[in-house]
Structures are given as structure tokens and as C-alpha cells.
Amino acid sequence: MSTADLLTLWSDQLAISVPVWLIILITLMYFARHPAHSAIRAASKVIRNSLRLSSKSVLSAEERLKQRNKEVLIAAGREATERYIEREFRRVESVVNRDLSGYPSLHRDLKEQIVNIDEDYRQSSEVPPSPPAWIQAVEAVAKIPANGDPMVSKILGDIQSTINNVHNTAMQEYRNSCKERHMLLKKMVPYWRKIEHSISNVESRIFSLEKRSKIIDQQIEKYEDIMAKTDHAVRMLSSSSMTQFFISAIVLSIALLGGLINFQLIALPFSEMVGANTYIGEMRAADVAALFLVLMETALGIFLMDALGITRLFPIIHSMDDKLRRKMIWAVLTFLFIFACIESSLAYMRDFLAADREALTQSLAGVAVAKPEFRWIPSMGQMVMGFILPFALAFVAIPLESFIHSSRTVLGVSMLGMLRGLAFVLRLLGNIAHNMGNVLISLYDLIVFIPLRIGQSFSHKKEVEAPNTPMLEHDSDDSHYSLGSGSSPTPGPREEVK
Amino acid sequence: MRKITLFLLISVSVLISGCSSDPAARAKAVFLLLDTSGTYTNEINKAQSIINYLLGTLTTGDSMAVARIDSGSFSEKDIIAKVTFDNRPSATNEQKRAFQKTINKFVSTVKSSSHTDITGGMLQAVEFLNETGAGKKHILVFSDLKEELLKGHVRDFPISFAGITITALNVTKLRSDNVDPREYLKRVDYWRERVEAGGGKWKVINDLERIEALLE
User: Fold this and answer.
1) Domain-ending residue, one of A343, A374, A395
2) With 50 as the cut, is the pLDDT of residue B7 above it?
3) Which of A155, A279, A332, A431 could form a disulfide with A304 if both were Cys (CB 3.0 to 4.6 A apart)?
4) How far is A276 from chain B (nearest CA, A)?
């Protein structure tokens, strides 16, 4: 029986049959109102509860992820700070080894210089020339009155000239002595300068150490902050991670571009070696080989940076013996050099092939084959590029390490945001489902509003007629059922039957 | 450990299967038939530029052959030059130069034939193309498509052109076509029906400026 047959079951005319169906349907709905309401409410409750439960579990997952992110961040921050402090201590060690190891010799030098200065100083102390012992006798004779005696006058004159001679000699000696002392004092000046220089050297070294110790103090404070897992430390590390992520992403994009250029440089000449018409899967073997070479160079670069202690992508390399690590550095550098030479020759071959192809194209086009004058310039350029790019690619390890470390934090934060959003959507959907249940109940009552109103008036009349009769029993949830029929509770058909 | 072994085995098998994929299936093969009958010989210079274009377009691993259509074209002697390009680009360039030289020599010494055995040439081309095993096969017919067979030559049988694209180039209008253009259309339709009946794809390119559409 088709739908059309069903529709015209009561009469051939739709205008009669459809209202009959409607009356039947509404009557049935009226009598099924109570269980229908219960079913709608139960369904909406089930949906709301399950969605709320899901939201709660998502929120708890978010909390766990938050905790995990914090731990990751703290661990990364701790490691970075440890590295920083370690590096500072190494610097201090090198300063101490380099500068303060020479302190005993510096001390000896200073002592020698001070002894020299002391010696010179002692020598330069002024000793007044002692007056001759007979000067008092001469003074006594000089006091004898002459009384016009020519003998006495002659003796006194001789005494005067003798005294003058002695005075001149003493003055000359004094001057010589002064000059000598001045010379000695002059000799002291370079010693003083040397001492001053040595002391300023010591001062600058001590100042540099002091500076380092201040940095170490700051880092230790930061380290303590991180170890205490304070919110300030987490915020600081998180923001630092974000910055690192974006910076390293930009640098990696640049490196990727460099890698592509490198690939383009060697892909064509590789077809001379492995054949241009050989395929591995959907890729040309020449392209795969070129890609392999570029990736090998990148991998070698990562090993080199790890061996140099710049990055720590492979803990096994970092924990290697220093001697072994040095050997590894040389081995990797040798390989890189070989690869650079290969790339350089491939770049030259590429240029040669391109020139050959160009000549052929010109010949096929019927044009005279041109030989550019400065053809060697691009050839040289390509060769140099081929040689330099492998070494440049080696430095990819630095942004790569930053990117990997910071991406853990960034991914964690993104996941947190997503989980929060999901929890919100689930709660929202739960509430919508709950309210939709109420809306459906109201719509249900709207459809059956005619029999509902009749039932209401009938029961109201009954109540007026028999005010002393006991109240009808009804469900405590009845208030919900009357949502579509006004604010007052409406009894269902079951109550009317009672 | 098992997972790693499994992963390695899968990777190796994928690589081997990738390597073993037939490179010829990716290659192109082109067979150019040059009509050397009557006055059509005058058009041979245009064909030369098409050959040069093809030499510039085809790459390593591709195959190419040029044959003349004369009184009896179903013969290896009518193949002027044929080549399957080497895997190395430098060797391919040398092969192209040698091919060009052979064609130039032919163009300068070509003599017109009295009859036109297009079907024989087509059969020769189909044979060559199928032997190459190339993924894309093309027959380029540089002719006015007017077949004139020697007495006794049997050519009215179906030919299998499965997987081959046949392109008629520079189908010139004859003097009689000017009198009754239906003759020209009939000629072209005859070949189109014959090719399509044999499972091939038929194209006509008269404007040689659209030469880039040749191997599409």
C-alpha cells in the first residue's frame, strides 16, 4: 500500500481523508501524550548527560595535558638553563686557566719590581754632605783680630780662599749626588708603570670573572625558579618557546629553500649517472639520488653540530669520549668536503649539459649556435654554490633542534586550546539537546492543544462541581508536561481516567 | 624488532616494485610518415621543421622514426631514420644531432614517387610502435591522404590501431578538391573511420602553428 493509498483510505477526496487522518493522529497523540513527553525528556536527558560526561572527560584530559605540558616545559627550561650555566662555568674555567694560571709569575714579577723600586728608593735618599772636621778650627782662627798685622791678614786670606775652595768642592759633590738621585728616581718610573699595568690587567680579569659570576647567579636564580615550578617560570618558558618556534620555523623555511636550490642544481646531472628514464615508484631515480645526497648532507650537518656540542639531538654523540668525538668531527667534515666536491662537479656538469641542450635547440631551430663570451661566469657561480651549499646545510641542525623542542610546547598549547574548544562545544550541544527536548514537548502540546483544552475545561468543571472530593493523584513531574499549555500544571489523560 | 623487520621488508619490496616498473611504459614513441609522391614533395621542408620540433620535444627513453610513403611503403627500406634515445641526456643530444643530419641529407636528395601507399606505411608504423612498448604511441602522417596503389597491392583490410593516436598533418587540398570539396572531406572521413574502427584516435592538424598540440 502506497502513501497515496493510505492518504485516501477514508475518502477519495483528500480534503476529507486528510482531516480524518489528522483527527485520528491528534487523538492518538493526545492519549500518548504522557509517555511521549517522558520519552522526549528521557532522550534529551540521555543526550545532555552523555555530552556533559564527554565534556568532563575532555576537560580532565585537558588538565592532564596541561600538567604534561608544564612538565615538558619545565624539563626543557631546566635543560636549557643547565646548559647555559655549564657554558658559563666553562668560560670561567677557561678564564681561570688562561689568566689566573699565570698569577704566580705575575706575583713574582710584581715582587721583583717592588724590590727594584725599593732599592732605587733607598739609593735615592738624600745624605747631606758632612762639614769638614777642621772647619771649627778655621772658624776659631778667623775670629782672631788682624790688628793690621800683614802676616795675620795673609793667613786669613789663605783661610778664606781655602774655605771657598772647600765650599765649591762640597757644592759640586752635592750637585752630583742630587743628579745621581734624580737619575735613580727616573729609573723607577718604568717600574711603576709596569706595576700599574700588571695591576690593571689583574683588575680587568677579576672584573670579567665577577661579570661571569653575576650571570651565573642570575641563571642559578632562574634555575631555582624553574625547579620550584613557579607560574612565573612556566609563563616565561612558554613565551620563550613560542618565540623560538616561529623564529626556527622561518629559518627552517629558508633552509628548505636552500635545499631545493641544491636539489635543482644536482638533479639533472644525476640523470647522467643513474639514467634519466629510471624510476623508483613514481619518482625519477635521478631525483631520488639527488634528494638522497641533499638529505645525507643535512644528516651529516646534524652529526657535526652534535659532535661540536652546539646541538644535542643525539645524546649518544654528546656522551661520547672527547677524543672519539674529535675523530667523528674530522670524519664528518671529510665526508662533507667530499660531498661538496661531488656537488661542485655535478653543478659544472649541469652547466655543461644545459649548454649542450641549448646548442642543440639552436641547431634544431636552424639558428647558428652562439657561444657566449662570459659563459664561464655562471659555470663558476654554479660550482661555488655547489661547494658551499652542503656546508651551509650543515647549520640546519641548529634551527631544527629549536624547532623540535619548541614544537612540543606549541603542539601541547594548541592541543590544549582544541580540547578546551571541544569541551565547550560538547557542553553547548548538551544544553541545546536539553532545551530542544523542552521545545519538542511544547510543540507536541501545540499539536494536541484542542483535546488538551477540552480535557482541561472538563476537569476544571468537575473540580468546581465536587470541591470536597480528594485531589487527583498526579506525577510530581506534571508541571513539565504543561509547558505547551500555559503556566498552570495540566493533568494528562491518565489522571482524567482516574 | 619484528615491526622494524616488517617495515624494512615492506620498504624494500616497495622500492623493488618501483624500480621494476617498465620505463618504456612512460616513454613516447613517434612514427612520422612523409608523403613523397607527386607534387607533395614540395612540402617536405615543412616536415623537416616538424621533425626538428619533435627532436626538441622528445626526451631520454623516447623513440622516433621517420619513413617515406612511396609506391610500396610496407618495407624497412622506407624507414629513413629511427632511434630510441639513450638514458643519458648527453648521449640523447648526440643521437638527436645524428638524426637531424640523416633527415637533412634525405630532404636534400628526395625524389618523388609515382604511387602513394599510405596503408603500407601505417602498417610499418604500427609494427614499429608496438615493438617499442612505449606508453604513448603516435603516428604522424604528413600527406594529402590520397592513396594511389600499384596494381596488385592489397591494402583494403582492417588494421589494429589500438592505443595509437594518428595525426594527419598538412592535409593539402588537391586541385580536384577545389572543384568538389566533398572529395577532400570524403578522404579525411575515410581515414578517420578506418583508424577509429581499428581502435585508434584520429586527429587532423593543418595549421602547423599549432604544432605544440601534436603529442597531446
Assistant:
1) A395
2) yes
3) A332
4) 5
Rounded Cα–Cα distance for residues A409 and A18 (Å): 65
Residue of B11, B12, B88, B132 to mutate for A, most A C-beta atoms under 10 A: B88
Which of A272, A278, A282 is closest, CB to CB, to B89? A272
Any idea what the Cα angle at residue B42 is, between residues B40 and B48, rounded to 5°? 100
- Is residue A111, in this structure, part of any structural domain at all? yes
Q: Does B63 fall in a domain?
A: yes
Residue at A53 is within a domain? no
Q: How far is CA A496 from CA A463, A477, A481, in A?
A: 11, 16, 14
Q: Residue B69 falls within a domain, yes or no?
A: yes
> Shortest CB distance from B18 goes to which of A279, A353, A366?
A279
Contact B159, B126 (CB under 8 A): yes
Q: Is any Cβ of chain B less than 8 angstroms from the Cβ of A167? A: no
Cell readout for A336 is 662533507
Write out pLDDT tens, residues A390-421. Answer: 999 999 999 999 999 888 888 988 999 999 99
Domain count of chain A? 2
Q: Any CB–CB contact under 8 A between A292 and chain B?
A: no
Least CB–CB distance from B61: residue in A277, A283, A366:
A277
Chains A–B, number of C-beta pairs less than 8 Å apart: 66
| Chain B partners within 8 Å of A354 (Cβ) | none
Q: Which candidate from A279, A357, A361 shows the least CB-CB separation from B23?
A: A279
What are the distances in angstroms from CA B172 to CA A84, B50, B168?
83, 16, 10
Mutation test of the interface with chain A: which of B12, B60, B85, B94, choosing the one with the most A Cβ atoms within 10 A? B60
Give the domain-ending residue among A227, A252, A269.
Answer: A227
Does A272 share its domain with A200? no
Give me the half-sphere count of Cα atoms (radius 13 Å) on the Cβ side of residue A466: 7
- Closest of B44, B30, B35 to residue B83, by C-alpha: B30
* Residue whose C-alpha is closest to residue A111's, from A182, A194, A190: A194
Range of the domain at B57: 29-213
Average pLDDT estimate for B155-181: 88
What's the whole-number average pLDDT of chain A?
A: 83
Q: Say what the ipTM of the complex is.
A: 0.78
A360 touches chain B (CB under 8 A): yes
Same domain, A288 and A387: yes
Distance CA A174, CA A377 (A): 84
CB distance from A298 to chain B under 8 Å?
no
The CA-based angle A277-A279-A281, given to 5 degrees, is 160
pTM: 0.64
Residue A397, C-alpha cell as written in the block: 641542525
Q: Classify residue B15: in a domain, yes or no.
A: no
Asked if B19's CB is within 8 angstroms of A361's CB, the reply is no
Does residue B23 fall inside a structural domain? no
Q: Do B100 and A361 touch (CB under 8 A)?
A: no
Give the CATH number, domain containing residue B185: 3.40.50.410
pLDDT digits over B67-110, tens only?
A: 999 888 888 888 999 999 998 999 999 999 999 999 999 988 88
Tell me how far apart the alpha carbons of residues A338 and B180 are, in angstroms, rounded to a whole number.
74
Check CB contact under 8 Å for A366 and B52.
yes
**A355 interfacial to chain B (CB closer than 8 Å):** no
Mean pLDDT over A343-358 rounds to: 90
